[in-house]
Model the fold of this input.
Amino acid sequence: MVRKGSSDAAYCMSVQALAGSLGSDPKTGLSDNEAKKRLAAHGPNRLRRQKRKSALTILLHQFSSIIVWLLTAAAAMSFVLGDIAEGVAIAFVLILNSAIGFFTELKAARSMEALMRIAEVRTRVRRDGKVRMIDAHGLVPGDVVIVEAGDVVTADLRLSEASNLQADESVLTGESAPVAKNTDPADKDTALGDRFGMAYKGTAITQGSGEGIVTATGMETELGRISDLAQSAEGEVAPLERRLDKLGHRLVWLTLALAALTIGAGVLRGHEVTVMVQTGVALAVAAVPEGLPVVATLSLARGMWRMSRRNALITRLSSVETLGATTVILTDKTGTLTENRMTVVRYLLAKDDVDVEDATQQPEAESPMGWALRIGALCNNAELGDGTEDGRSGDPMEIALLAAANDLGTSRQTLLDDMPEVREHAFDPDTKMMATVHQAKSGFLFAVKGAPEAVIKACTRVMWNGGPQDITEEKRGEWTKRNATAAQDGLRLLALAMKEDAAADGKPYENLTLVGLVGFLDPVREDVPAAIEACRAAGVRVIMLTGDHADTAKTIAHEASLGDSDMTVIESGELSGLDAETLSDSDRTRILEADVFARVSPETKLTLVSVFQKAGHVVAMTGDGVNDAPALKKADIGIAMGQRGTQVAQEAAHMVLQDDAFATIIAAMRQGRVIFDNIRKFVVYLMSCNVSEVLVVGLAVGAGLPAPLLPLQILFLNLVTDIFPAFALGLGKGDENVMTKPPRNPAEAIIDRPRWVLIGVLGASITIATLGAFAVALFWLGVETGPAVTVAFLTLALAQLWNVFNVRDTDSNLFRNEVTRNGYVWGAIVLCLGLIGLALWFPPLAGLLGLPTPGITGLALAAAASFVPLLFGQVWVWLGEPSDRVGRER
Done:
């Protein structure tokens, strides 16, 4: 069989040469016996299934995080020491997170199953000289396949016949306009989208009919090659997962060190070894932020819900935060930046150009504009139906011609009532024109449209306001130049021509009168320029990837506000053969600085994603076709289109846009940034509270003082004052100005150096206030150890509650900020105060925790001391570096 990429690639060969090399006859096809032999040699025409992970493997993966190991050990130790409540709480956290992770991963990319369904159809094939229907998986190289409008191509075909044949290849190339097919061979270096003599597996025939010789089946097809790329492309570990794992490693060593130091200091001070081991284990449990996984899960789930309300569906929890860390968006053009519909924008007439948006009234019937509208509506096979998008059918350009004529008062049906169609000359790839013949009052009208260069060459006259005039070679050259100039503006062009003849069977493409050229454009969505500007303000680069030629791509990019006239455009051919691992510095720099990539292939998309990732970027990639699936899977955040996207793309992606709108990405990006900031806030809060608990006990034991907190009291604080305020911080709506700040450094940890310092400072201030109140109660007020412990407990509990206000952004207002505006924070404080009051004044619970009443004086002392860390923390935050600069430098 012929393999793509070899010197004798199928698209480079003539039909006769290819048939000879494959031992096939286009007239009779293969024999049944020969087909059976080839099927045994090549295998079924199916795409290989991706090996699925077992449910057990997915479940075990949920326990691969070191922080989960730490929590599991903490839960086991709690049960061993009899701390059932703490053990149950930690176990609940583990089960909740594991369940969420298991079910979301179980729904992960099923790209190959979607690809498989493409091949599960029947197809017409010629064997032993007879046409028959067979299952598509029975096709073999050398088979002769017959296709017509409405068919899905079931194997890669070298076309041997093509009658008005057009194919929608958007699933492979990303280009929405149907491609006219012919039987001509192409040059070896021709891009896939320009191989007009080929029809590829998975594409759809939109018009005409044809025949082709099968050149490749199954995984050897272009679709199979992309399938293989999607299977081999490894998805990147989400930044949030990397950061949580790194934080978990630090916590392991910090926890073990603190527990060991506390136990050692206590034993040296004469405390019983058993008691100190219990205290050390309790402190180890206290040092582990049990609420971290569940609060992170809750925060991400809340973000998913908010994004879904903005038409962004997230398929993987950690992807919610990943989008907020995005530094580069590689975006598809068609349907994402543009409306994915062809629109007539300009008529190029003999005297001047007419922009459709400026044409507000019906032109005179005999004027060039009037003729242009009529010819475009008559030489047409499309239908507008009820006028809605769903009611329209036919070639997108023909639909656009009908819509333009209809908007300016020229109805096709009205025209046909006056000039019935008596004959049609279908589009001929050789002449690159089509014509319809209509009965007119004085003979017959030939309405012609086609490729500008072909139509201009066939014209002997041109239509002016006063009627037709002869066209000279100089004028013909001027029309050719106008066509080229308009094409450089990003327009697709058709030429319109006509002639009147006494007979209906006259030659349609001779002695024509050129009416004009008509320019089409897939317009940029109205909300895109503003969304691009919002990305720019947020420090995120947007780079366009398209199947268009460079000139067209540059024009669309300019209209979308991606860059100015000097923007850098690179065509995919310039990147062929390049590897992300071995790129030269000059090539890498050129790629990283480009604004647009044109004529992009699936391999190029994968290469681009890898290049930007290796440069330290968090890459978001948008796409809708089968050809986008490998890159969507490889990107940090793959974004598929929900309305026009293929199932393959949607299942390979991490996020699906239900409205296909680029602006929705910006809304989701804001939510992602808010979520990471919320996670960072509650981690700082949890860690500073936990550090204070460890220091309070450790320093007191080391100084020879009685233990200011009992193990059960520490566990109570962990379950009350830690979890509920942290939950509240995770649900916050975030900073109003979050999208005016640059993105985070992708290598930045959840807790960077300034925030570790903040944790230490806040933890130390709470510790000083607690130990200070404990010492005052013991040595100044002369309170017994039991009530003094209650003072320390109450001081620590209240100080931790007020500590929630110390995690606001350093550039925020003291009284009105993202924490004080969070209603959940106030609710958590009220709830925690009620639970603390219950612990003090509900006798059974007070007795269990060992909290005898300290009297009014002791309560007043604890209340007053608890505000010291709040005041100190606010001063520290006020003196700190603005949060929009901390950790964002690159």
Observations:
- The chain is about 45% helix and 15% strand.
- The longest helix spans residues 662-702.
- Residues 721 and 801 are 6 Å apart (CA to CA).
- Confidence is low (pLDDT under 50) at residues 1-8, 107-119, 882-890.
